[in-house]
Amino acid sequence: MTNNTITREMFDDVMVPNYAPASMIPVKGRGSRVWDQEGNEYVDFAGGIAVTALGHAHPGLVGALKDQATKIWHLSNVMTNEPAIHLAQTLCHLTFAERVFFANSGGEANEAAFKLARRHAWQHHGEDKHEIIAFRNSFHGRTLFTVSVGGQPKYLEGFEPAPGGIRHAEFNNLDSVKELISSKTCAVVVEPVQGEGGVLPGDPEFLKGLRELCDEHDALLVFDEVQSGVGRTGHLYAYQHYGVTPDILTTAKALGGGFPIGAMLTTAEIAQSLSVGTHGSTYGGNPLACAVAQRVIDVVSQPEVLKGVRERSKTFRDGLKWIGDKYDLFDEVRGEGLLLGGVLSETWKGRAKEVLKAAAEEGVMVLVAGPNVVRLAPSLIIPESDIEEGLERFEKAVKRLVG
User: Fold this and answer.
1) Closest CA to 233 of 171, 303, 313
2) Does 269 count as an annotated binding residue?
3) Which of 23, 32, 104, 344 has the smallest set of CB atoms within 10 Å of its CB?
4) May I ask the CATH class of domain 8-58+303-402?
5) 345 is in an annotated binding site
6) pLDDT tens digits, residue range 332-358?
7) Fold classification of 71-300 (topology level)
8) Which residues bind N(2)-acetyl-L-ornithine (predicted)?
């Protein structure tokens, strides 16, 4: 080992201990394969937590980055840059949106969305209309505001006092929303598919009911599509699958295919509430990020790519169900498109991290969504051969755990 070799132990010496990364260190990726420092190969079913939508080192994304890197890297927001305008035009063309705000992450996109919802209500209805309704087990980011809106108290522990005016209902239970919503409600915030909360899809009637309740109470409907967006469900955005149009939508993760970028999408009328000076971001709309995201959207929005997501979803579901039945591993396999969750059976309850670790040891990368759900969020264009081999490796891992 040379002095330049990076080790897992070095993480503990120099990094804040809020993460607990795996022992292996990936150094190269291509498509849906990853190699670590020792040359061990892995099939990637994790996708960087639903981020690497086109796999690793996609030639189109590499080309877009290199091309923009020779032009201009950064401009402050007192200037207009071409890639940002081009990307905003594309997002507006492909969605309900008429205006876009760029940020660097999903948390920042959600922060902007929640601020916009409150300011819009303040301008049009007064300061009493400020309450936000969100859902238990939701996840919207790690800023103090977004973690407060998120419905998982463990992420807020030790950071109180939290911002007020936030109430939590039960996901997929419209009656629980009816009990909370009032003339004080400025927004209802929901993930159409709960990701961190266990890969739980929203019921169509539930999401339609939220739209109707928001309309009745002059509240805005905010869809957090940070994880479910950019082709993940087999539609460019999940709201298009459900036929329920929000007032504000947030997107990040796969939007940059691995390059940090987030965006908040809304209508022209609502966007007016964020007038000059009310919100901002130093790096939001960065030319490098927008150039890469443009290429991502150009590829993912193609009908054949979205169709391929739905076809691959069936292959994964069938394979996971077969493994689940053979080893009594899963009670159900749920999710949409290539955001899938295997819900562990009573026999395996609480062992999701064990499954993840064993899978890595057999050469396949998976995720968890809490202690009882194994989560998959692979590349949207993962080859069938990689799916087959990855599932074979996954079965070996489960078999080894069975003993």
Assistant:
1) 313
2) no
3) 23
4) alpha beta
5) no
6) 999 999 999 999 999 999 999 999 999
7) Aspartate Aminotransferase; domain 2 (3.40.640)
8) 142, 281
